[in-house]
């Protein structure tokens, strides 16, 4: 606001005698801008906090899935949403193992000691499975199921070779840890049985709307579990299909002919001994990681 005066007696007062500017709108705009900046900072803090929570959840989730499955779920999300079938028919080599007389062991050890022993065993087996490229399907108590050929495959023969390589390394690692387990209350250490079968399986997410499980279904899965159950202590039994794929690269012995439930014909089995000397240097690798527990304790 301003006022204009004109007076003969006081000429020095003539003219504009003051000016008042209404800055209310400018003040409100500045205040609104400051509030928006403050809100942006608060939103950024909220986003960072939620991102950290999501990262923690993702890290915890990764422990419940095989690395290949975890990667496949996140990378193939768009393909799955596009209407493509979430199930595949693939030729897999399936591995199954469990600890001999585990029920007696679980009854004789304190819960904390049992957890330490079984977690050590599963950690060691997991390290070997991952390094050999296997997809860890599940742990069923002391039992371990691993398959080769999905979501990544090197071909039927190489998948079978990698599975056999893994089984031999697991067998050797169990023997290396026997003294450690002895010192921790398991007399004689742990003894395992292993079975390997090859054949076509259906792979995908199976379950309910509340809980899904990425797994393989089919007769090779059932057969590998059956072979594990008939395997001698600390031995690996192969199905005829697996043997036929890699028989020139391994040393083995004919084992029993069995007639598993659900199979139309008897199945010839083979006891795995080792790789041929000429192939072992190319296939087998040494594993330096010892897992959580040091055997020299």
Tell me about this structure.
The protein is an alpha+beta fold. It folds into two domains: 1-63; 86-283, 2-Layer Sandwich (Alpha-Beta Plaits). The chain has helices at residues 24-62, 67-75, 77-81, 102-108, 111-131, 156-176, 178-183, 219-230, 240-246, 277-283; strands spanning 2-5, 15-19, 88-99, 135-140, 143-148, 192-207, 212-217, 236-239, 250-258, 267-275. A hairpin with a 4-residue loop joins strand 6 and strand 7. The longest helix has 39 residues, at 24-62. The radius of gyration is 34 Å and the shape is elongated. It starts with a strand and ends in a 14-residue tail after the last helix. The model is unreliable at 78-82 and 284-297 (pLDDT under 50).
Keywords:
10 helices; 45% helix; 10 strands; 2 domains; 297 residues; two-stranded antiparallel sheet; alpha+beta; Alpha-Beta Plaits; disordered C terminus; elongated
């Amino acid at each position: 606001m301003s006022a204009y005066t004109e007076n003969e007696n006081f000429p020095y007062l003539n003219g504009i005698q003051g000016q008042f500017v209404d800055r209310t709108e400018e003040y409100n705009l500045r205040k609104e801008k400051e509030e928006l900046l403050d809100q942006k900072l608060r939103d950024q803090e909220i986003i960072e906090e939620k991102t950290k929570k999501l990262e923690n959840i993702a890290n915890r989730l990764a422990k419940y899935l095989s690395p290949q499955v975890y990667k496949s779920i996140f990378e193939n999300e768009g393909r799955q949403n596009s209407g493509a079938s979430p199930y595949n028919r693939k030729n897999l080599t399936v591995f199954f193992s469990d600890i001999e007389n585990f029920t007696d062991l679980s009854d004789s050890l304190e819960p904390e000691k049992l957890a330490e022993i079984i977690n050590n065993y599963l950690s060691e087996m997991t390290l070997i499975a991952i390094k050999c490229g296997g997809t860890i399907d599940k742990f069923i108590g002391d039992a371990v199921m691993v398959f080769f050929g999905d979501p990544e495959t090197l071909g039927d023969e190489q998948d079978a070779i990698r599975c056999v390589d893994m089984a031999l390394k697991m067998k050797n690692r169990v023997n290396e840890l026997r003294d450690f387990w002895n010192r921790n209350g398991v007399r004689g250490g742990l003894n395992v049985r292993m079975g390997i079968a090859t054949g076509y399986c259906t792979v995908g997410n199976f379950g309910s709307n509340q809980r899904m499980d990425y797994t393989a279904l089919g007769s090779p899965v059932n057969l590998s579990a059956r072979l594990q159950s008939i395997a001698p202590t600390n031995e690996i039994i192969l199905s005829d299909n697996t043997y036929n794929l890699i028989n020139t690269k391994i040393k083995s012995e004919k084992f029993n002919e069995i007639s598993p439930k659900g199979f139309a014909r008897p199945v010839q089995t083979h006891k795995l001994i080792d790789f041929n000397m000429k192939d072992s240097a190319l296939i087998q690798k040494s594993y330096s990681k010892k897992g959580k527990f040091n055997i020299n304790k």
